[in-house]
Design a protein that fits this description.
Blueprint (H helix, E strand, L loop, with lengths): L13 E4 L8 H16 L4 H9 L9 H9 L5 H17 L7 H10 L3 E6 L3 H11 L7 E4 H4 L7 H10 L6 E5 L2 H10 L3 E5 L16 E3 L4 H8 L6
Parallel strand pairs: 1-2, 1-4, 2-3, 4-5, 5-6
Helix pairs in contact: 1-2, 1-4
Length: about 230
């Protein structure tokens, strides 16, 4: 873990987490879901279908990406489209599992009296499903999604809403996320302490320009640092 001293850490009351690829490997879940769809269709490469999601023509989770894939293959019909969407969604959700040490870290933070929030660009319904599936939802005091705040990161609106609901100031919270551009940049706009979850960065086409206050190779490292600076009496 790369770090530098910061006197503000002694005042920390809350930790705000990004969700996908910070708490669990969402990209891997999507790859498995795409593979299941391709297996159903008898087509060759799940990476080809994944690229339809990555091109950002629609939302990253839009089923329209699957529709375009089927149309480009010349095999689209409504029934097949519905089957593929159903397979994709089931396998994706079934494949989501927390990264190592995530539950341990969240329990330690809660036991230390820190408030916890999730701030995600996923729709609220999808966020709740994923957090329930992983068994992590019980650890969070607040869950904020882009459809609640009206803005996606790196705009800081969702983070501001989370801070308000937690009842803490920006200098009393740490932001943890896997994206330099969206998470770290958003936290920096508010003057927050930022923590880059390097272990989960699957942002294939994203610029890595920018620097967080701390870099984690494993989420567990955040506990050691908070203990050292006196935020956690463990």
């Amino acid at each position: 873990m790369e770090s530098k001293p910061n006197p503000e850490l002694g005042k920390i009351k809350a930790v705000i987490f990004d969700m996908d690829n910070t708490l669990f490997d969402f990209v891997e879940a999507k790859i498995r879901a795409c593979k299941a769809v391709c297996d159903h269709l008898g087509t060759d490469d799940e990476r080809e279908l994944l690229n339809y999601f990555l091109r950002r023509k629609y939302d990253f989770e839009s089923y329209e990406n699957i529709a375009d894939y089927l149309k480009d293959k010349g095999i689209y019909n409504d029934k097949l489209f519905e089957e593929c969407c159903r397979i994709y969604e089931k396998v994706k959700l079934d494949s989501i599992k927390p990264y190592p040490n995530v539950r341990y870290v969240l329990e330690k933070l809660k036991n230390a009296g820190l408030k916890l929030a999730v701030v995600t660009d996923a729709l609220n319904g999808n966020a709740v499903k994923r957090l329930k599936k992983t068994g992590l939802i019980e650890h969070f005091d607040v869950i904020i999604s882009a459809d609640q705040s009206g803005k996606r990161k790196p705009e800081p609106d969702s983070i501001v809403l989370a801070l308000e609901k937690l009842g803490v100031k920006h200098k009393e919270a740490i932001l943890v996320g896997d994206s330099i551009r969206r998470d770290i940049e958003a936290g920096k706009k508010l003057g927050m302490i930022t923590v880059y979850a390097a272990y989960g960065d699957r942002n294939f086409f994203e610029s890595k320009v920018g620097k967080a206050d701390f870099v984690l190779k494993d989420l567990k490292e955040i506990i050691d640092y908070l203990r050292v600076v006196g935020c956690m009496k463990i």
